């Protein structure tokens, strides 16, 4: 190979798509720039692409490393020296370099251009204009902004991060392998390191003295941990993570550094408007923040993801150090807390309206920031923590974040016992979260304290109804929900801020549906109409679920499945985990009753697995638990014990997305999967035999032949005539 590319110090891992893309660009264009954050692997990618392309450049592939060059005037002489050109340091140095290159077919790689942007842009512009066969590949933390430049942003590694860690770990600990015993810890470590190759490689060197778990535990002090002070190779800017990021900091202007420091209070990501709320002040106006965000993106300090921005963990940690040095940490964190309290109030006020799905997505996106605001409030202002924790009830209850809600509501309520309306709402929210976990004891404790609060009868009554529902006491639950509805319009405190009558109606209708009464249909239809009118899709999901339960109790399996699928779809859109688990449970019942034993077993396993991880045990809850057990008996009878256990285990291993896909998949045709003996039983049912007559026939069959009688009897234990109707539907469908 002609040129001066160095030998790779270690194997190159991943980046197949990026390599192909950059190589393609070099074949079509003459100037390509790789940009990206500190340590993300721009230089390694450029060198790998250059090495791959060397056959296309008969006059060589030449690397010019610029990190140690500080004077822009030395750029052309350094390039000329690298290419073996004339030593001309006069006014015509760039022209002499262009004459030296002339018509040669070569690739010039300029590595680390960010501190010499103007000089590099001028040099590259003139060389490309005068040297028709020259190609240039540059790397830097921002583009050159030169004519004809094609920019490729190098992002952190995804799945290849684990492969890189494993590869570099072997160099440190030869017998290290990533296997079932440590894969989860390695994945978590790579995620905490943002998939940044430099950080991953530095972490791998620590395996000489630390385990993967120990390294992860020490990441809060990542700059002390991730350094290579004992390494004699490589540029000094890459010996530690701190110096790599510090290099970016040096290249920022003072106001850019100030914004970087203030942005460090955000957790994970943020949008422009909130950044302006939090970071504007003193020497930075809102307009300044808007403009400087773009500059930090260009300099690869910030990542832009759609309409949101994000600092990598290490970049944020570096900014946090600077913020403390500036003495602005407390003031900035207070502005951050206030901004997210305002956002939570807006979300609550608009929750029951047409923007509900958008708010569900927004609140979930902002969860890390809400938690950071709560942590700050718990330390500095517990009353604000109580208000924020209670105001976030849609996030805790309807968007699937039950565990976080439980933890922060408990912490906020324990931090201050001052009786205020905000505390009452937080107690109500805590009772509701506990009720969704079917933890009746905890829910009742919160409910009783809520009812003793000042001027809050409606909150306490709603909490009481929720606890009754969780306890399986549908009669008192319905009475409670009706009292809550009757209180609407009475003078006094704002009625269940953020909720609509459709929400309470759907809860009352679901309670009525569990006993199969026809009154449930009128209530649920009313809830459906009201929720559709206002855009309250969460209440509509509960109403659909209620209609599914009603259909199930009355033997209308086709209608129940249709209603249940719609409820599951809405739960998926909102992220409502508790609602989804109930939907999976109902879908399992319907699957078992229509002969789909494998699907029923898989969904039961998903309910157990996902519910157990979230602390929600439907199999132990009143109403749901008994039917869960009966459904398991029927599914086991349909597919046999070993196949049932396998399907349950497969379901328990599903993630939430996969469980949604199974629950919403196209069902097989009715009647499919019946054994001959099961078809015979269905025939007897269709002929109108009573349960007793059917049992007598089965007993006779059991004495005269080796049949699947036990499996069939298991099906009949589900709950009397509802399942009989299911078998009739199956058999009549088969007849047609």
TrEMBL record:
Check the record and name the Pfam families matching this protein: AAA_22, GerE, HTH_77
Instruction: Enumerate the spans annotated as HTH luxR-type domain.
Output: 667-732
What PROSITE patterns does the entry give?
A: HTH_LUXR_2
Q: Which domain of life is it from?
A: Bacteria
Q: What is this protein called?
A: LuxR C-terminal-related transcriptional regulator
Name the source organism.
Microtetraspora glauca
Q: What is the lineage of its organism?
A: Bacteria, Bacillati, Actinomycetota, Actinomycetes, Streptosporangiales
């Amino acid at each position: 190979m002609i040129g001066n590319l160095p030998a790779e110090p270690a194997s190159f891992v991943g980046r197949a798509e990026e390599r192909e893309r950059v190589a393609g660009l070099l074949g079509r264009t003459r100037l390509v720039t790789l940009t990206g954050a500190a340590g993300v692997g721009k230089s390694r990618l450029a060198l790998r692409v250059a090495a791959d392309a060397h056959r296309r450049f008969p006059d060589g592939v030449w690397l010019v490393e610029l990190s140690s060059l500080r004077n822009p005037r030395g750029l052309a002489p350094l390039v000329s020296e690298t290419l073996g050109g004339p030593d001309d340091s006069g006014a015509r140095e760039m022209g002499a370099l262009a004459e030296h290159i002339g018509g040669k077919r070569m690739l010039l790689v300029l590595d680390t251009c960010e501190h010499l942007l103007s000089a590099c842009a001028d040099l590259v512009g003139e060389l490309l204009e005068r040297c028709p066969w020259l190609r240039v590949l540059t790397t830097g933390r921002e583009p050159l902004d030169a004519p004809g430049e094609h920019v490729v942003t190098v992002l952190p590694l995804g799945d290849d991060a684990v492969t890189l860690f494993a590869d570099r770990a072997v160099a440190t600990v030869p017998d290290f392998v990533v296997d079932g015993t440590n894969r989860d810890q390695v994945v978590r470590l790579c995620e905490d390191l943002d998939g940044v190759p430099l950080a991953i490689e530095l972490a791998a060197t620590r395996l000489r003295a630390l385990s993967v778990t120990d390294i992860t535990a020490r990441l809060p002090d990542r700059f002390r941990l991730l350094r290579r002070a004992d390494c004699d190779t490589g540029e000094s800017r890459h010996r530690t993570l701190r110096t790599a990021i510090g290099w970016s900091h040096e290249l920022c202007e003072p106001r850019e550094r100030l914004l970087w420091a203030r942005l460090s209070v955000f957790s994970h990501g943020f949008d422009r408007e909130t950044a302006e709320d939090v970071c504007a002040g003193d020497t930075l106006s809102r307009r300044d923040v808007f403009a400087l965000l773009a500059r930090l993106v260009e300099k690869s300090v910030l990542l832009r993801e759609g309409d949101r921005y994000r600092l990598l963990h290490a970049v944020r940690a570096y900014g946090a150090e600077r913020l403390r040095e500036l003495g602005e940490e407390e003031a900035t964190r207070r502005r951050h807390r206030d901004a997210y309290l305002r956002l939570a109030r807006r979300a609550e006020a608009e929750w029951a309206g047409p923007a509900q799905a958008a708010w569900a997505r927004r609140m979930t996106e902002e969860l890390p920031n809400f938690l950071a605001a709560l942590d700050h409030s718990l330390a500095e202002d517990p009353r604000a923590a109580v208000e924020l924790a209670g105001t976030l009830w849609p996030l805790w209850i309807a968007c699937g974040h039950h565990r976080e809600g439980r933890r922060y509501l408990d912490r906020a309520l324990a931090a201050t016992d001052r009786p205020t309306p905000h505390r009452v709402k937080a107690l109500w929210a805590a009772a509701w979260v506990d009720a969704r976990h079917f933890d009746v004891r905890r829910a009742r404790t919160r409910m009783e304290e809520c009812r003793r609060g000042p001027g809050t009868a409606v909150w306490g009554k709603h909490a009481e109804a929720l606890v009754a529902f969780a306890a399986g006491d549908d009669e008192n639950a319905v009475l409670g929900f009706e009292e809550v509805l009757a209180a609407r319009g009475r003078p006094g405190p704002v009625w269940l801020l953020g909720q609509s009558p459709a929400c309470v109606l759907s809860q009352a209708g679901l309670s009525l549906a569990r006993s199969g009464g026809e009154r449930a249909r009128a209530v649920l239809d009313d809830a459906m109409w009201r929720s559709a009118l206002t855009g309250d899709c969460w209440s509509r999901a509960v109403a659909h679920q209620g209609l599914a339960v009603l259909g199930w109790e009355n033997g209308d399996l086709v209608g129940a499945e249709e209603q249940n699928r719609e409820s599951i779809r809405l739960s998926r859109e909102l992220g409502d985990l508790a609602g989804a688990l109930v939907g999976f449970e109902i879908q399992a019942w319907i699957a078992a009753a229509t002969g789909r034993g494998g699907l029923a077993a898989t969904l039961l396993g998903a309910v157990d697995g996902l519910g157990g991880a979230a602390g929600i045990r439907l199999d132990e809850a009143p109403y749901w638990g008994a039917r869960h057990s009966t459904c398991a008996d029927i599914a086991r009878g349909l597919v046999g014990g070993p196949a049932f256990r396998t399907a349950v285990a497969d379901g328990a291993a599903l993630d939430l997305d996969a469980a949604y896909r199974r629950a919403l998949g196209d069902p097989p045709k009715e009647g499919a999967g019946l054994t001959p003996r099961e078809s015979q039983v269905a025939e007897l049912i269709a002929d109108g035999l009573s349960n007793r007559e059917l049992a007598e026939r089965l007993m006779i069959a059991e004495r005269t032949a080796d049949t699947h009688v036990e499996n069939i009897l298991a099906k009949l234990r589900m709950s009397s005539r509802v399942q009989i109707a299911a078998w009739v539907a199956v058999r009549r469908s088969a007849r047609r």
